[in-house]
């Protein structure tokens, strides 16, 4: 798995570097859980990690099955977005930055809105308006 991750330039940390329960290893585990959007791991991760490290920051865990391709698994996880819906349906999320192309920003907005619609009970009929805000220009009302 390490060779495949290095080949596709995916960040990789081996279980040997985090194995153990001393203070330095626990600091490293906390740093990994805080700094990453999600963690791809094998099913036997609980021998090296405690689930409490990931529960504190709500870092999602994704399990890698050895028969699947690591690159497609990584790309699929990096494209996912997760929202926590509260009582009101006001939601905001970051869709991109200045150097990102228009197609990529459009894809990010579309993915976010599709996932948001799936969370709503009545679907699209629950959405009153959709606004895209920018720091460098005025807000654009889409819907």
How would you explain this protein's 3D organization?
- This protein is mostly helical and about 140 residues long.
- The protein has two domains: about 1-80, no CATH class; about 80-143, no CATH class.
- About 40% of the residues lie in helices and about 5% in strands.
- The strands form two sheets. The chain has a two-stranded parallel sheet.
- About 5% of the residues are buried.
Keywords:
6 helices; elongated; mainly alpha; 143 residues
Describe the structure concisely for a colleague:
The protein has 143 residues and is mainly α. Helices cover 39% and strands 7% of the residues. The protein folds into two domains: 2-78, no CATH class; 81-143, no CATH class.
What's the structural blueprint in terms of helices and strands?
Layout: H1 2-7, H2 15-18, H3 23-35, E1 39-41, H4 52-57, E2 61-63, H5 70-78, H6 102-119, E3 131-132, E4 140-141
Pfam family, one: Ribosomal_L1
